[in-house]
Amino acid sequence: MQSNLLLLLISITAIAISSTTSATTIGVTYSNPAPIYGSVPISPEKIAAKVVAMNIQAVRLLDSNPEMIRAFAGTNVAIFLSIPNPMVPLLASNLSFASLWVYHNVFAFYPRTKISVISVGDDVISSYSPDDPPLFLLRAMQNVQKSLENLGIFKISVSTTFSFSSIVPKAFPPSSAQFEQGNGEAIIRPILQFLERTNSSFMIKIDPYQMYRSSSSITIGFAIFETSRFNFREDLATGVRYHNLFDMMVDAVISSMAVMGHENIPVIVAETGWPSSGIDAGEIDATPYYSGQFLRSLIGHLRRGSGTPLRKGGPSEVYIFELVDKYDPEQPVTSRNWGILDHSLTDKYQLLGLKDSETIFAILLTVLEIFFYLALFMIASHRFIGWYIRRNDPPRPIRRHVRRN
Ligand SMILES: *[C@@H]1O[C@H](CO)[C@@H](O)[C@H](O)[C@H]1NC(C)=O
Ligand SMILES: *[C@@H]1O[C@H](CO)[C@@H](O)[C@H](O)[C@H]1NC(C)=O
Fold first, then answer.
1. Can you name the residues that pair with 233 across neighbouring β-strands?
2. What would you report as the CA-atom Rg of the chain, rounded to the nearest whole angstrom?
C-alpha cells in the first residue's frame, strides 16, 4: 500500500514537471508585403497590436525596419531580427558598417523592444556555388557580435539562418544524416564553433510541405502529424520510430551537428508551415484543411514538450511561417498562401496554444495540480498519524465475529 502511494506520488510529480516545462517558444514570421506584388500595406502598429492580442510570444521579422522594431516597444514579444542578405558582405568587410547597423536597429530600441536574437542573413549559402562558398558569413556574424559587445549588449545572441534543403541532402534515416560536404566543412563547421562559444543557437528553416511533395514515400498523414498505428517510419540504425516528418527533419539536423561534435547546440526552427493554397492545380495538398491540421498538430506537439527522439526538449524556438497572407489584387486567385491570418488580419484557423484561452487553461491546470498535491499531502499525513498512534498504542486484538444464521 505504502509503495503504491509512493509510485503514485512519483508519477504525478513527473506529469506535473513535464506539463509545466513546455520548453519550446512558439512564434510567427512576419515580412512586409513587397510593394512589387501590389500588396496592401499594413501599419507596423496594427501588426504589433494583433500579435499582442493573439498572445504570440515571439516574432521573426524578415525585413527588419526600424518602424517595425519600434512598434513592438513596451510589449512582451521577443523579437528575432533578420539582416537582409545584400548587407552581409558589407557587415563582414566593414566593422563600422556593422556597428552602424546595430546602433540604428538594436541600440536605438533595446531593451524597450525585447530583441532576443539576430540572424545575419537568411539562407545565404544558396546564392553561392559550392566552388565559391560565402566565407565572409562568419566574419559578418563576428562583426555584429563585436558591435553588440562594444555597445554593452550581451544578452542578444547572434546566428545565421540555414535552409534544410540547402544543407541536409539526405534526411532519412535521421541518425545517418550529414551536412552537405563542401559547405559543411567550409561554412557550417566554423559557424558551429562560433555558436558554441557564444551560447547561441543553430537556426534552420524546415519545410515539411516541400519534403512531402518531393518524396513519394512520405504519406500525407506522416507529414501533417496524423496519429495512426501505421503512420511511422523506423530508423533502422537506432530502432527509433518517427511519427511525424517534422521530428524526423529536426533530428536529421541534430545528427548532422553531432557528426561535427556539436550535438548540444540549441536548435531554432526559423520557419515551418503548410500553405492553404497552391500556385497551380497540381498542389492538391495545399488546402485550408491540411494547413489547419498541420498547424494545430504542430502547436499541440510542441506544447506537450515531449521533444524529438534525439533532443529531449525539442527545438528551443519554432516560428510558424507566416503571420499574414501576401495579398495581391493583380494576381489570379491562385497563389501560395501560408498565413495564419488573411490580408485583412482575420484568423483563418482556430489555433489554440497561441491564444489567451490556452493561458487560462494552463493556470487552471496549475491550480488543480496544487489541490492534488494538497490532497495527497493530507492523505499521507493522515496515514502517518495513524501509523504513529498504532505504534505507541497498539490496538487490542479484535474480537471475532461469529456469524449466526
Ligand atoms: C565602412 O562603413 C562606414 C559606415 O557605413 C562608411 O562610412 C565607410 O565609408 C565604410 N568604409 C569602407 C572602406 O567602405
Ligand atoms: C555561456 O553559458 C555558460 C553557462 O551558462 C556561461 O558560464 C558562459 O559565461 C556563457 N558564455 C557566454 C559567452 O555568454
1. 242
2. 26
What's the CA angle centered on 291, arms 50 and 321, to 5 degrees? Answer: 50
DSSP string, 15-76: HHHHHH----EEEEEE-PPPGGGTPPP--HHHHHHHHHHTT--EEEESS--HHHHHHTTTS-
| pTM for this entry | 0.83
The hierarchical CATH code for the domain 23-356 is 3.20.20.80
Number of Cβ within 10 Å of residue 209's Cβ equals 25
Ligand nearest to the CA of 92: 1
Per-domain residue ranges for the chain?
A: 23-356
How many angstroms separate the CA atoms of 111 and 115, rounded? Answer: 7
pLDDT tens, the chain, 405 aa long: 455 655 555 555 555 544 444 579 999 999 876 554 555 578 899 999 999 999 999 999 998 789 999 999 999 999 999 999 999 999 999 999 999 999 999 999 999 999 999 999 999 999 998 888 999 999 999 999 999 999 999 999 999 999 999 999 999 999 999 999 889 999 999 999 999 999 999 999 999 999 999 999 999 999 999 988 778 899 988 899 999 999 999 999 999 999 999 999 999 999 999 999 888 878 999 999 999 999 999 999 998 888 999 999 999 999 999 999 876 666 655 678 899 998 888 999 877 666 544 556 666 777 787 788 888 888 888 877 777 777 776 556 555 565 555
From 148, 199, 264, the mutation candidate for ligand 2 (largest count of ligand atoms within 8 A of CB) is 199
Indicate whether residue 405 lines ligand 1 (CB < 6 A): no
Residue 45 C-alpha cell reads as 502598429
How many whole angstroms separate alpha carbon 323 and alpha carbon 341?
A: 6
Task: Say whether 289 sits in a helix, a strand or coil.
Answer: helix
Please calculate the CA angle 363-364-365 and round it to the nearest 5 degrees. 90
The rounded distance, in Å, linking the Cα atoms of 366 and 372 is 10
96 lines ligand 2 (CB under 6 A): no
**Cβ neighbours for 379, distance < 8 A, ≥ 6 positions apart:** 5
